[in-house]
Amino acid sequence: MQALSHVLATAPLLSAVLCVFALSLGAVRVLCTDALSRLVVDVPNGRSLHTVPTPRTGGLGLMAAATIGWLLFAGNALPLVAALAAVLALIFLVDDVRSLPVLPRFAVQFAAAIAFVATSGPYPGLLLVPLVLGIVWSANLYNFMDGSNGFAGGMTLIGFASYATAAYFQGAPGLALVAAIIAAAAAGFLVWNFDPARIFLGDAGAIPLGFLAATLGITGWQQGVWPFWLPLLVFSPFAIDATVTLAQRALRREKLSEAHRSHYYQRLIQSGWGHRRMSLAAYALMAACGGSAMALRQGPAVAVLALLLAWAGIYAAIAIAIDRRWAQFQAAKP
Questions:
Q1: Is the peptide bond before 122 cis (omega within 30 degrees of 0)?
Q2: What is the 3-state secondary structure (H, E, C) of the chain?
Q3: Furthest C-alpha separation in the chain
Q4: What is the pLDDT at residue 131?
Q5: What is the rounded CA–CA span in Å between residue 72 and residue 76?
Q6: Cβ atoms of 211 and 132 closer than 8 Å
Q7: How many CB atoms lie under 10 A from the CB of residue 322?
Q8: Which candidate, 197, 169, 163, 157, places its Cα nearest to that of 282?
Q9: How confident is the model at residue 9 (pLDDT cuts 50, 70, 90)?
Q10: Which residues have CB under 8 Å from 132's CB, separation 6+?
Q11: How many domains does the chain fold into?
């Protein structure tokens, strides 16, 4: 009887996941067609990793599927977050088409972050500014990391699936359903985005997904579903690369708003790994981060500290290995 009740409780979640996956799969496929693929095209340049013009409207299909699924299957769960993410998707679709100036872009992101923090609290006063900055940084780092076939789509699938699993087993069905819906939409997008990619996320997908990664992470922490460090570890493959790369560029006094190819994942691809191998290795890293975070989400403080220190060591070792490989690759150039 207990097994039967568990199956019955899981059935609505599985139904939502399958419906959203099918909706995203179809929507992104339509956006790949000749009639719509020219709406926003990412034309290769000297700083691109791809070699052929590729539409970057996949995020529109992903977010449309996720929003519709959210309304149909989880309408009562986090309605403001859903509305803010949908608004971000629409505004940054305009940015994809017309390229908005930097200040309006940041103004919109800060407005969404402030709206979330102001209505989802209360939070201690000292945390208000860090939370807002963290949400805006998450939105932007997600955008920075949308530069390789299957990379951002895989992080979305694995990251939000980790949220969904943790929330489900912690007895937070609403949060689990929302996260599972986003993961399902990412899976539909990833079918067309994996190497060789037929479509990319674009700002209309990357910005709201980064916003959702942060706001759902904060929501789960505030509701006691998981500890504060869990979202940081789950999405650390993106956060570490983007943050360390930005710091390195700042130290070199480079123009931070200028496009570049110096992220660790970009250097791996350029030095011979290619998109497919890099993405598959990244998926293993992402899954290990999510799995270890869920395994110790209720563990003792000593075990959690040991886990985080272990991951710090792993990331340091990965960075050193890529730096060495890149140096050898540069030295071997004619």
A1: yes
A2: CHHHHHHHHHHHHHHHHHHHHHHHHHHHHHHCCHHHHCCCEECCCCCCCCCCCEECCHHHHHHHHHHHHHHHHHCCCCHHHHHHHHHHHHHHHHHHHHCCCHHHHHHHHHHHHHHHHHHHCCCCHHHHHHHHHHHHHHHHHHHHCCCCCCHHHHHHHHHHHHHHHHHHHCCCHHHHHHHHHHHHHHHHHHHHHCCCCCCCCCHHHHHHHHHHHHHHHHHHHHCCCCCCHHHHHHCHHHHHHHHHHHHHHHHCCCCCCCCCCCCHHHHHHHHHHHHHHHHHHHHHHHHHHHHHHHHCCCCCHHHHHHHHHHHHHHHHHHHHHHHHHHHHHHHCCC
A3: 70
A4: 96
A5: 10
A6: no
A7: 18
A8: 157
A9: low
A10: 110, 113, 114, 117
A11: 1
Question: Any bridge partners for residue 54, and if so which?
Answer: 42
Sole residue written with tokens 């890529």 = 322
- CA gap 154, 141 in Å, rounded: 15
Residue where the block lists tokens 């956060």: 239
The pTM of this model reads 0.91
Q: How many residues does the chain have?
A: 334
Nearest to 12 by CA among 176, 135, 151: 176
| Pair of tokens at residue 326 | 């890149």
Position 1, amino acid: M
How is residue 230 written in tokens?
Answer: 């869990």
Could you give the angle at the alpha carbon of 75 between the alpha carbons of 115 and 59, nearest 5°? 70
Range of the domain at 193: 2-331
Predicted confidence at residue 4, as pLDDT, reads 36
Q: 143 is written with which tokens?
A: 């955008």
Query: What pLDDT band is residue 42 in, cutting at 50, 70 and 90?
Result: low
pLDDT digit string (tens) for 73-91? 987 889 999 999 999 999 9
Q: Tokens 């799969």 label which residue?
A: 25
